[in-house]
Amino acid sequence: MSRKKPSPKSERILDVAEELFALHGYDGVTLRQIAKGAGVDVALASYHFGKKLDLFNAVFERRAGELNEARLSALRECQEKAGKEGPSVEQVIEAFLRPLEIAQETGDKGWTNYLALIAYINNSPYWGEKMMSKLFDKLVLEFIEALRRALPGSRDEDLFWCYHNLSGARTLTLAQTGRIDKLSAGKCLSSDFRAAYDHMIPFTAAGFRQVCSAEK
Predict the structure, then answer these.
(1) 88 with 78: CB under 8 angstroms?
(2) What is the pLDDT of residues 51-64, one digit of tens each?
(3) pLDDT in tens, 20-29
(4) How far apart are CA 161 and CA 166, in angstroms?
(5) Which of 47, 56, 68, 191 has the most CB atoms less than 10 A away?
(6) Residue burial 15-39, b: 16+ Cβ < 10 Å; e: rest
């Protein structure tokens, strides 16, 4: 069954909610503030999405499918190009990360807000467990399987800890906190996504190899 196309007003509610949740978190935003930002009555926001929690879920789910599809497509492409030997650790990690960079570089403010929202949720002991698994675990496990093939003999616990560290680095990049801007006195910019991923890919690949090596 095809999904009903959202109305312009419901899309506007989602856009405003996405921005406010990304900036202030779930508890820092009210349904009334979202409705006001979208130029609609609270009753209309409730009609389309129900309670604030339902709207929060709708915002988080809206772009997840598109993002997952882009990352899986990148993984399939690198696997096909690699042939029987399979992709390297760097190629698998690049397939995992580059679609995020592309989304951030589109100039679409919505993607910037959405990825910042992912960072907020992924970094929350409350929301992370409730929301990340439902939408992203299947995708992550497929990438971990690709990394397992690229690192024969690796232990599962080492792979998962290395992914945990990769996820932390990715989350900090998605959040664009500006911390690196200040720390480096402007030599590095949190908005320079290409530089962020150009450094993250070889850095985390080296970590995977060091920790997951069967010879250590």
Answers:
(1) no
(2) 999 999 999 999 99
(3) 999 999 999 9
(4) 9
(5) 56
(6) bbbbbbbbeeebeebebeebbebbe
